[in-house]
Amino acid sequence: MRHRAGRRIAQPTGYRAFHPAPLPPDPPVRLEGGLQALLSQADRALGRLDGSIQTLPNPDLFVFMYVRKEAVLSSQIEGTQSSLQDLLAAEAHVLAPDRPRDVDEVVNYVNAMNHGLHRLHELPVSVRLIREIHHRLLQGVRGARLTPGELRRTQNWIGPAGCTLNEATFVPPPPHEVPVALGALENFLHADSELPQLIQIGLAHAQFETIHPFLDGNGRVGRLLITFLLCQREILIKPVLYLSHFFKQHRAEYYERLQAVRDAGDWEGWLAFFLRGVASVSREATETARRILALREDHRARVTTGLGRAAGNGHRVLEHLYQRPIVSVADVEELTGTSYTAANNLVSRMVEQGVLVEATGYRRNRLFRYQAYIDLFGESVEAEGEAA
What we know:
With 388 residues, the protein is mainly α. The chain has 2 domains: 6-287, Fic-like fold, CATH 1.10.3290; 307-382, Arc Repressor Mutant, subunit A, CATH 1.10.10. It contains 16 helices and 5 strands. The strands form 2 sheets. Strands 3-5-4 form a 3-stranded antiparallel sheet. It has a two-stranded antiparallel ribbon with strand order 1-2. β4 and β5 (367-369) form a beta hairpin. The longest helix is centred in the C-terminal third of the chain and has 40 residues, at 267-306.
């Protein structure tokens, strides 16, 4: 079983690199006992999540924040410091002096995910799509000098900061093997298989991380791959599974499980971890959808009863906030087609109703947050999840 996932082979210059065996594993994954039970739980939780999103009045409105939560968490696993608030502020073009320098990496993640989801209508998950996503992810940010969109032509390795190739925890396949390994992964994804869909997706993520085909951004691209496969295979109609929340909470185990596949061929251990994550985050994301509905009904009622003749424009602003939860008075003016004074009055009344919160403390160029909605996806929800 030790060489079930591949083997380390000495290279001409003396170091040993891992050559992954093609998927599916041989001997086959043992889908029995606890692993079968976890698969059933994950399938049921994903089904409930997909159903709950479809009960929302306009699912596309709410995908905006699910995508951004995944972007923030996946990027934080790789060491970025930017929060969800930082990302939303950057997208609203708020140039705060204390804005983290790495927020552009998270913005790129959002762009890469949206690009990939759009491309899935015309291009299946493939090496070509993976390279496109990588190009979007690294364009103009840290790692941009490391050939965005290009498979690596030099050896990379994983290990403690400052370690050498010979001291590395893991050395992925040498550069000339990368196209071959990625081609085999693509073939696996497109081949007919009796393996359950979630098992295939879990295998594919681990295999991609083992191939490590780029000089930077492999973790983020590999986690995007999970989202793309869930949507392409219509397991989820919308990209609302922020699985990086589980991976970040259990970061050490995440890496240990991946490494155990390479060291000991322990595919079952990795898949059990992966399925626990899918089930856990699906339940949390379903609860988020329930809270969205409750919040929306509460705030629609406040707008209807509290804004009088301006309620129509208030509802228009409220719906807009689900996609752009930070607005200025000028934004509201444009959205409602009213005067600046009328827009300013409308915003002030929505602040009085507890729908909007003034975010800058300025007298001019003020910005307003839909804070209650942001909080459904922010650090407070994450803390509750960790305590549960």
